[in-house]
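Hello K.,

You asked for the raw outputs rather than the summary table, so here they are, unedited. I folded two proteins back to back in the same session to keep the settings identical. This is the first:
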Amino acid sequence: MLVPSTLFATAFTKGLCNRALTYRCRQLLTFEVRTLFIHLTEHIMIEWVVEKFIALIPSFEKASSLRRDMQDNALRAISHALNETFIYYRDIDAGKPRSPDIEAQLSRYWSAAAIPLRHIDDELAQICEHKSEYWINPDNWDSEKIEHLGIGLAKVRDQYRSLLAPKKFSLRGKAGSAAKL
């Protein structure tokens, strides 16, 4: 089968382009120009899309970096609140008297930890907020309420550590098999 450009060339070289054939030749030429235009347009559009996608890669990398920084800041905040709370309990166990100033500061630490944590673990952020409320007046809280809200220090530390642990992955798609590689 002859393609349009071959038909046009054949008709032209044989001198068959009379008036009717000339009209047909113009139709074929128009068809070829349109087809060429469509192919060029598709190529240009594909090239444009690829260029725009490549231009977005730094934005994705920056967003990933910002998310990592946000997670690190949240983990740093809860780590600080945990450490200061353990230090306070250590001092009390060593015989130092309770300090309303330190308890107020602990409330601020836990509240400050809740804010960035809401982006990575809403449940733990709520627990930190409850810890903050606890330290405003610890005498108003009984062990049943502490257990019900899950704000015991050991439990909070375990949740924090679970966020610290890197997620295991596998090239085969099974959790935990990466260690076998």
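The second followed immediately with the same parameters:
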Amino acid sequence: MKENHQKIKLLKLMELLRQETDELHALSTNEICSRLSAIGISCERRTLAKDIALLNEQGFEVMSCRVGKEKGYYIADRSFSIPELKILIDAVQAANFITENKSAELIKKIAALGGSHQADILQSNLVCFNTRKHTNETIYYSVGYLEDAIQQKNKVLFRYFDLNEHGEKIYRREGHRYVVEPVALVFHEDNYYIVVYSAKHDSTANYRIDRMDSVEIIDESVSQRALALRNEVAGYTERVFKMYGGQPVDIVIEFDDKLIGVVYDKFGESTKMIRTHEHMCVATVKVQISPTFWGWLFQFGKQMRILSPASLTEEYKHMVGEVIECQ
């Protein structure tokens, strides 16, 4: 019993130090003994130093300092720094696919990784800037099932829906249950997607996870092609999610130098640019010609144009003309 009591004591002591201390908030010997006694764990001043020494021998790095006239202890090194935790919290805030309730739960857990004192600071500085959160509360479970299926190399089935003008679910194909081979989970522009392979059509597809429900893992192994695609995910997401559809084409674009950052954001900071005029630059980039590409280009109006190939220049002019005619 004494041995078990000592193990529990060390666990509770470590838990107390992790949650309640940092460089600015050390606990004195008396405070630690009182806190442990309050939860039924016997702790004496003369044995506490030995307990701390044992923890340090095991690599927990408990630091000591003076707290008034007493010796105090704290843990300074943590798995995450405050800036890192802040970045994670802001990412959760920004992600549309995480519902408001789940966002609050996850933020609380992330903040707690910094200890109780820093958790209060992190949560008090929250700025609720995302009012476009989705409402599908089952997304956490869906992500869990899909990740398990990927690890187990099994197929999954699910129903997929859209929303009507009243925000009601309208299931595609009258509630048909899709059976697919999961390849990878991909986060893109505030939404979470599952990339899947269909052996029937020998093609890939992407589904938004917040639009899925009734997700289940089935006892059928995925094909070798689906497994091979997992090694190609990086290139696939680059092509499909940034400018999806069509064949990759090298094009030359000219743009106002105010859009240099925009071009780097879209095509990478390794993109080579040449200044042609005082306020204009030229770059050769690889894109897949699709409605997504035309929509991206159209938003910049006169500030960006295609120089070559000439066929794309004419196609763009034709599309602009059609848009004008519809107004």
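Residues 2-75 form a domain with the Arc Repressor Mutant, subunit A fold (CATH 1.10.10.10).

Happy to rerun anything if the numbers look odd on your end.

Regards,
P.
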